[in-house]
């Protein structure tokens, strides 16, 4: 049998074996180093220039990586990693990058010593399984109905963010919005904040004026200036079809020879629109909202019938309105039934804020969808507040599914590190070393927390290690002064799922990068 032949063209770059691994590890470390100063309560912000010339101010690991333009494939894979973390659990994106970078850095010497990557990967997997056990053993259950406990939990998550100064407000917003959209149906729980919580940012005003509406708000005005802009207890119809004359397909040709025929065509159009509006008016709605257009003629008939109309509403907005008002979105007017009409909303109003009109559908009974109105100084600040609020909602949502908390401030990571280091001694053969490397790598989280607030890392880490070796596994770092504290007193706890997911994502991706032994590129290198 012949060996397979790989044809490479003249421009192809190729790095193989050790060279490829070294390049990957270096790139991953470089990414982790950028992110390092963004961990913890004393995190620094990064100012990023996006390709369109805008600026992004943030300390969210994921948001930073999303904006920067990297070319190395390993660095790209790190970015993907933070995206996974963001999608899975919504927080801990900075942690996971730092952790993955450190694991690679710690295993690097063994690559250099020619331990086969497969053995290293085996050790990593074993370490991951043990780390998950340790995380479970240090976690405690939480009571979801205890408001104070929930607020404290959310505070720990946003205490590391720019919104820190308004943390009380942000906690309330996150808790209220998540509770609004949570649907618990026996064993089935649904908390879809992505789909049913909309964050609307309106520059101006004070951050403390932000609120969670008991309903939804849209950046829209009524279609006709004479329509009513304030209605109490409206009957609402939601459509996803246009209120216009249904035009023929693009292939139709009409040939007209007499002038009366032309008039007749126009007349038919008018009759159709009138008929549609009459069908609607039979249901005595006060408000008709459609995702498509509303023609001038239709507006006329609706206005005459005392109905207010909104048009070209986004599908996603319409879905939220449906959940909040109890209406069903109808796509053929003929199919409309009394039960499709929404009556759960008790106030409709259009308000002018700044120079834009906003439509409010509020005072809904048990809305199940909501809008969070964020106010604040400028667009950039509002964008960062929005990202922070997302983290807070993610934390809230996570504990609703899995009501268990792990100690924060690096305590969980230190516990993992100490336990794995003990266990490493019992492992036979070369696998022991990479396993020990993972144990060392987990120390990076408490170390970074100490460094970011200007503490003495070596001395404090030694103290912390001693505590954990004595079995006190709730001790961690006070992120404000870099001293060791007991998290039971200091009160920084995080959802267990976030800790578990960070460990999983970090170790998996480190293993993935180590498995690579060739980087082949068809792209010509730029000068
Ligand atoms: P991530 O994007 O990973 O969530 P953060 O900047 O939010 O990054 O930092 C989270 C880390 O900071 C967690 O390990 C958490 O336990 C820790 N932390 C949060 N608040 C404090 C605090 N006040 N003191 C010490 N550590 C803290
Ligand atoms: Mg966080």
UniProtKB/TrEMBL annotation:
Name of the molecule in the record: T-complex protein 1 subunit gamma
UniProt organism field: Diutina rugosa
Gene Ontology molecular functions: ATP binding; ATP hydrolysis activity; ATP-dependent protein folding chaperone; unfolded protein binding
NCBIfam families: chap_CCT_gamma, thermosome_alpha, thermosome_beta
Recorded superkingdom: Eukaryota
A GO CC term attached to the entry: chaperonin-containing T-complex
Entries under Gene3D superfamilies matching the protein: GroEL (3.50.7.10), GroEL-like equatorial domain (1.10.560.10), TCP-1-like chaperonin intermediate domain (3.30.260.10)
Assembly and interaction partners: Heterooligomeric complex of about 850 to 900 kDa that forms two stacked rings, 12 to 16 nm in diameter.
Higher taxonomy: Eukaryota, Fungi, Dikarya, Ascomycota, Saccharomycotina
Keyword Lipid biosynthesis among record annotations: no
Major place of residence: cytoplasm
A Pfam match: Cpn60_TCP1
Assigned keywords, A-Z: ATP-binding, Chaperone, Cytoplasm, Nucleotide-binding
Keyword hit for Isomerase: no
Cell location: Cytoplasm
Family: Belongs to the TCP-1 chaperonin family.
């Amino acid at each position: 049998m012949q060996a397979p032949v790989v044809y490479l063209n003249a421009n192809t770059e190729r790095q193989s074996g050790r060279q490829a691994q070294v390049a990957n590890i270096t790139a991953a470390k470089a990414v982790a180093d950028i992110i390092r100063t963004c961990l913890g309560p004393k995190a620094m912000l990064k100012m990023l220039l996006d390709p369109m010339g805008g600026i992004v101010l943030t300390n969210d690991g994921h948001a930073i990586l999303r904006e920067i333009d990297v070319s190395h494939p390993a660095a790209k894979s790190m970015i993907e990693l933070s995206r996974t973390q963001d999608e899975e659990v919504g927080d801990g994106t900075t942690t996971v990058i730092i952790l993955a970078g450190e694991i690679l850095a710690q295993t690097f010497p063994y690559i250099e010593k020619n331990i086969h990557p497969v053995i290293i990967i085996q050790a990593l997997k074993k370490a991951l399984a043990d780390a998950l056990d340790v995380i479970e053993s240090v976690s405690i259950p939480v009571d979801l109905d205890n408001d104070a406990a929930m607020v404290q939990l959310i505070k720990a998550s946003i205490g590391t963010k720019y919104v820190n100064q308004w943390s009380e407000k942000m906690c309330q917003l996150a808790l209220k919005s998540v509770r609004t959209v949570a649907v618990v149906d026996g064993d089935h729980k649904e908390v879809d904040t992505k789909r049913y919580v909309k964050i609307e940012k309106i520059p101006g005003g004070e951050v403390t004026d932000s609120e969670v509406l008991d309903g939804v708000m849209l950046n829209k005005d009524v279609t006709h200036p004479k329509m009513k802009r304030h209605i109490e207890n409206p009957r609402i119809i939601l459509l996803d079809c246009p209120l216009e004359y249904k035009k023929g397909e693009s292939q139709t040709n009409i040939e007209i020879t007499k002038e009366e025929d032309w008039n007749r065509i126009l007349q038919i159009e008018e009759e159709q629109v009138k008929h549609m509006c009459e069908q609607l008016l039979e249901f005595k709605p006060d408000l008709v909202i459609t995702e498509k257009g509303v023609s001038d003629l239709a507006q006329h008939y609706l206005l005459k019938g005392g109905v207010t109309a909104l048009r070209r509403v986004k599908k996603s907005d319409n879905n939220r309105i449906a959940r909040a008002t109890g209406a069903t979105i109808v796509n053929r007017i003929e199919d409309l039934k009394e039960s499709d009409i929404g009556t759960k909303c008790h106030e409709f109003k259009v308000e002018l804020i700044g120079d834009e009109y906003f439509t409010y559908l509020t005072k809904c009974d048990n809305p199940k969808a909501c809008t969070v109105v964020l106010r604040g100084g400028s667009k950039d600040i509002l964008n960062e507040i929005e990202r922070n609020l997302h983290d807070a909602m993610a934390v809230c949502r996570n504990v609703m599914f899995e009501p268990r908390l792990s100690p924060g401030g690096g305590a969980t990571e230190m516990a993992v590190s100490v336990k794995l280091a003990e266990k490493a001694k019992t492992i036979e053969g070369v696998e022991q070393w990479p396993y020990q490397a993972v144990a060392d790598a987990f120390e990076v989280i408490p170390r970074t927390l100490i460094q970011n607030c200007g503490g003495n890392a070596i001395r404090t880490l030694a103290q912390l290690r001693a505590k954990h070796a004595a079995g006190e596994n709730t001790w961690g770092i006070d992120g404000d002064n870099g001293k060791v504290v007991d998290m039971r007193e200091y009160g920084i706890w995080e959802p267990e799922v976030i800790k578990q997911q960070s460990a999983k994502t970090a170790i998996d991706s480190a293993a993935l990068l180590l498995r690579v032994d060739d980087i082949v590129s068809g792209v010509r290198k730029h000068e």
